[in-house]
Amino acid sequence: MLYLEEFMKFRNGINRYIRMCEKEVDELNILDSVILTALRDNPNMLAKDFSKMLSIDPSYMTRDLVKLEKNELITREKDGRQKTLRLTEKGERICTGIERVKGKFLSELFKKVDPDELEASQRIFRAANKVLEEGKF
């Protein structure tokens, strides 16, 4: 059970980071932050591809996108039967704040971690994600 204890400590740290991000973006939740920053890195993406990339249920993603559009953080433009997503200027400003918090958090989190341990952790997460995706647990 040592793995579970360490995982829970790590999860609590991530939750602190999430709260820091939420303070930065006021009315938005962490999913909103993830969507905005991912959209910043993948401009003009189709909504269906975006949902798949982030592993978010399409109907849940649609509800969140409607909220982001209502808050004038994104635009959803029809492109035939699909909708293309774009950040607004306001969305770009919010992303800048999120990136500032994320950069500070990650630099503090990993500055004392050995690079070999980071690589090993990445391999563990990949293997665990593969098992979860295959549903073999």
UniProtKB/TrEMBL annotation:
Keywords: DNA-binding, Transcription, Transcription regulation
Cross-referenced PANTHER family: TRANSCRIPTIONAL REGULATOR, MARR (PTHR42756), TRANSCRIPTIONAL REPRESSOR OF EMRAB OPERON (PTHR42756:SF1)
Gene3D superfamilies per UniProt: Winged helix-like DNA-binding domain superfamily/Winged helix DNA-binding domain (1.10.10.10)
Name of the protein in question: HTH marR-type domain-containing protein
CDD domains tied to this protein: HTH_ARSR (cd00090)
A molecular function (GO) term: DNA binding
Database matches in InterPro entries: ArsR-like_HTH, HTH_MarR-typ, WH-like_DNA-bd_sf, WH_DNA-bd_sf
Domain HTH marR-type: 1-133
Record carries keyword Transcription: yes
UniProt entry tagged with the keyword DNA-binding: yes
